[in-house]
Design brief:
Elements (H helix, E strand, L loop, with lengths): L1 H24 L6 H12 L12 H21 L6 H31 L3 H10 L5 H10 L3 E2 L1 H13 L1 H19 L6 H35 L9 H20 L4 H15 L1 H5 L2 H22 L2 H4 L3 H24 L6 H9 L5 H13 L4 H19 L3 H7 L3 E2 L5 H8 L2 E4 L4 H8 L11 H9 L8 E4 L2 E9 L2 E9 L8
Antiparallel strand pairs: 1-2, 3-6, 4-5, 5-6
């Protein structure tokens, strides 16, 4: 039985030690995900563990299953109410944003790695999307309370941009393999790529919606006392999600999109039944993340990465400091985000397991230079988790997007002001009382005037200048502003 016992002991010890290390590492800001990834690398052939592991097929299989579970869990936790502020910008970031980021990063990779442009763009596609596992986990652990617009945009984007990255990766692999075979990309090749895009998103979206509706109907019909702890419901959700993922991919659709949509619809249409299972689902998601990151870490041979460390760090820098910010600024320009919000969303472009899993695709397809692409993708993920992942809390506070806790009276007054006004109060009398310039239509409710002046769905923390004062949204009642904070500027000495 040693062929069972020894691997089982080694795997369980590795996970156990990684979890212990992760619990202590969070005190200094390191993420669990980074610890698992490094633990896998240390257990590999270049580390103290000395384990030789190069089964890319197994890693690809495990990675896809883990991503399906993580996206399902993220979908179950995405409330429809977040769509009020986050859906439109998220959809643009998840499609156009990924394409822009991939193109700019690919151009830099072509120059820095001295590879053919198709391989550069393939690398850009591999690292082009943010990672749902990293974003969901690190936003929770950052200790920062974000306003609804920023939080919803980041979470929905990370859950929905994987299909675009997968599509772009497969498209460039097809272009490279076709060119190598002598079938130069032509009009027919472009037609095939466009048709594949439509099929991937069309089939994935349709099956995801259908599965979500069917699963929610089933959950609502289950006996209420059949699963008080939520464990059986969580098992039902995971098995259904994996089934949707596999079936969608089998018939040519995007399984990533389908499983996220199915989870989101089920979570919103069968809220009571799903809510009791979220604790168990959290366990499944963490197990998936741990197994996936450990396995992907085992694949890496650090000694092989040293020769390309410089160019790889250059690719990571271009992605984080140039490509991602440009993509975010262009995509969010129509939605009137504040500059500090755009910079924060740009910085939280976390890369995690998805780029490493996608980097396995070229290896399995026999693409030239595929091991180089895999090593560079791994470096990009390490840098992203190390720099971006550990500074989310600091960046949120430094850029002023973190909302104060209401128990912190000093910071609450600094953000929202010293006076609390009812959103239903007429704006004219309020301005007259505080000596502020009266806006047009002074009989309008303060909440309605602020909503029109903002020009976008209001969220807690939104601010507007009005004469010598600043008005801030202090609380919301659904989609309507309930309370407004007012902060008067201090007069300079000698002012009248």
């Amino acid at each position: 039985m040693d062929f069972v016992n020894i691997p089982l002991f080694a795997a369980s010890a590795l996970v156990f030690l990684s979890v212990i290390s992760g619990l202590f590492s969070t005190r200094v800001g390191f993420s669990f995900l980074l610890v698992f990834l490094l633990a896998g690398a240390l257990a590999g052939e270049d580390g103290p563990g000395g384990l030789h592991f190069d089964d890319f097929r197994l890693s690809f299989w495990v990675g896809n299953i883990a991503l399906a579970v993580i996206l399902l869990d993220g979908g179950l936790r995405t409330a429809y109410s977040t769509f009020r502020t986050g859906l439109k910008p998220s959809l643009l970031l998840a499609t156009v944003g990924v394409a822009i980021s991939a193109a700019l990063t690919g151009a830099a990779a072509t120059l820095l790695l001295d590879v053919e442009w198709r391989h550069g763009l393939l690398l850009g596609a591999i690292v082009g999307s943010t990672d749902a596992a990293a974003v969901f986990a690190l936003l929770k652990k950052s200790g920062v309370t974000l306003n609804e617009r920023v939080a919803a945009t980041l979470e929905i984007e990370s859950g929905m941009n994987d299909p675009m990255a997968v599509y772009l990766t497969l498209a460039f692999i097809a272009v490279i393999v076709g060119t190598e075979a002598g079938a130069a990309a032509s009009g027919s090749g472009l037609h095939t790529i466009v048709a594949t895009f439509v099929l991937q998103f069309g089939i994935g979206g349709a099956l995801g919606v259908a599965a979500g509706l069917g699963l929610s109907a089933l959950l609502n019909r289950l006996p209420e006392a059949s699963d008080s702890g939520g464990g059986i419901t969580a098992l039902l959700l995971v098995s259904a999600g994996l089934g949707v993922f596999g079936l969608t991919g089998w018939i040519g659709g995007s399984g990533f999109l389908a499983v996220y949509l199915a989870g989101m619809i089920a979570g919103n249409r069968a809220t009571a039944r799903v809510r009791v299972s979220l604790s168990a689902m959290d366990g499944y998601a963490w197990l998936s993340q741990a197994g996936m990151f450990l396995l992907l870490g085992l694949l890496v041979t650090p000694s092989e990465m040293l020769s390309t460390a410089g160019p790889a760090l250059g690719v990571a820098a271009v992605l984080m400091l140039v490509a991602r910010p440009i993509a975010v600024w262009l995509c969010l320009a129509p939605f009137r985000f504040r500059a500090n919000e755009v910079w924060f969303i740009s910085w939280v472009g976390l890369r995690g397991a998805v780029p490493i899993v996608l980097a396995v695709f070229p290896l399995m397809a026999g693409v030239p230079n595929s091991m180089l692409l895999f090593n560079v993708a791994f470096v990009v993920v390490l840098v992203s988790l190390l720099l971006q992942g550990t500074t989310i809390g600091y960046a949120g506070k430094r850029l002023g997007v973190a909302l104060p806790e209401y128990s912190d009276e000093q910071r609450t007054r600094a953000v929202f002001g010293d006076f609390v006004l009812d959103g239903r109060a007429p704006v004219g009398p309020v301005c007259e009382f505080y000596g502020l310039p009266a806006p047009d239509n002074p009989q309008a409710a303060l909440a309605d005037w602020m909503s029109r002046a903002l020009g976008r769905p209001a969220v807690v923390g939104d601010r507007l200048p009005l004469g010598s004062a600043t008005l801030a949204v202090r609380s919301m009642d659904g989609a309507r502003i309930a309370e407004v904070g007012l902060k008067l500027e201090e007069s300079a000495p000698g002012d009248a």
